[in-house]
Amino acid sequence: MVYIDLESTDVYENFGLEYYLAEEKKLEDTVFLFWRTTPTLMLGKYQNLAEEVNLPYAREQKMNLVRRMSGGGTIYTDLGGWQFTFIDRYKEEGIEFKKYLSPVLDALAKLSVKAEFNGRNDLCIEGRKFSGNAQYHLGESIVHHGSLLFSTDIEKMVNSTRVDEYKIISKSIQSVRERVCNISDHLKEKISPEDFKELMVSAILGEENKANRLELSKEEILRVKELAKTHFQNWDSLYGKNPKFNMEKIGRFPGGKMHFSLEIQKGKIQEASISGDFFSTLDPEEISKAFVGLAFDRDSLLKGLTERGLEGKLYRISVSEIADMLA
């Protein structure tokens, strides 16, 4: 096993590193990464951003948004949490979690934390989740990555994500706080996130691998940054990969109520129908047409609706208010 530490808290660079090690710098040994990010919401490959994330809150808190190359759900992470990654040469069919979770569970056991695998993709302590995991194949590699809530801000995690109502009902729980926990709450002695990292890395590497720490060259780090921008830090990777969906939303403004019915595909509005008890100098068809073809994110809506002359045409309703409410 080889350990690589990019020493970056930039989520896009860390995902770029995963891509680089899986697709370009193909080491024969298993590669192990242990990293963290500034406040970030990581969206699963197949998820709809508009349904999973509280976008106004995420913007207010200046959270990063990124779409993973793996499936699974949306997770919130910050400097109080850690991510771990294992990259292997692809040798078998299907998705297998236990192989990569066993070293993590063993490392936690050395810290006297009694954790267990729930059989799907989570690690739990006394039935409460502290780790979600996902896998994907890239070329000849398999990438397994997971999160570890150590001293994560649970309040921000709850406020920034929208929980599937079915999941709440099916598990008979009252709130997200009742089904997640931080590892730090279960340690016998208080330690910092940085100390936790060193203990986990040492335990997972073991005596036989503790010297196997590889540093990237300056040229390799530049390549990682390029891959970060190409595959993760751009509009298309986040919004363009949203699945096709229909949105029904009601906005209540000082000038009246507006009902938005939108069909969105590949991140752009394909069809729009706007109704309500508001006042305007435009026909309903003109208002609806102003939305068609616009990219479905706040900045694009604000720019596009302004350029198409909607500002000032709706009584006591601004384009900025509409963009904030929708996206």
UniProtKB/TrEMBL annotation:
Annotated metabolic or biological route of this protein: Protein modification; protein lipoylation via exogenous pathway; protein N(6)-(lipoyl)lysine from lipoate: step 1/2; Protein modification; protein lipoylation via exogenous pathway; protein N(6)-(lipoyl)lysine from lipoate: step 2/2
E.C. designation(s): 6.3.1.20
InterPro entries for this protein: aa-tRNA-synth_II/BPL/LPL, BPL_LPL_catalytic, Lipoate_protein_ligase_C, LipoylTrfase_LipoateP_Ligase
Pfam families (alphabetical): Lip_prot_lig_C (PF10437), LplA-B_cat (PF21948)
Cellular component terms (Gene Ontology): cytoplasm
Keyword terms, alphabetized: ATP-binding, Ligase, Nucleotide-binding
GO function term, MF aspect, one: lipoyltransferase activity
Gene3D superfamilies in UniProt: Bira Bifunctional Protein, Domain 2, CO dehydrogenase flavoprotein, C-terminal domain
Chemical reaction(s) catalysed: L-lysyl-[lipoyl-carrier protein] + (R)-lipoate + ATP = N(6)-[(R)-lipoyl]-L-lysyl-[lipoyl-carrier protein] + AMP + diphosphate + H(+)
Cleavable signal peptide: none
Keyword set includes Chloroplast: no
Start and end residues of each BPL/LPL catalytic domain: 26-212
Swiss-Prot/TrEMBL GO biological process terms: protein lipoylation
Protein name: lipoate--protein ligase
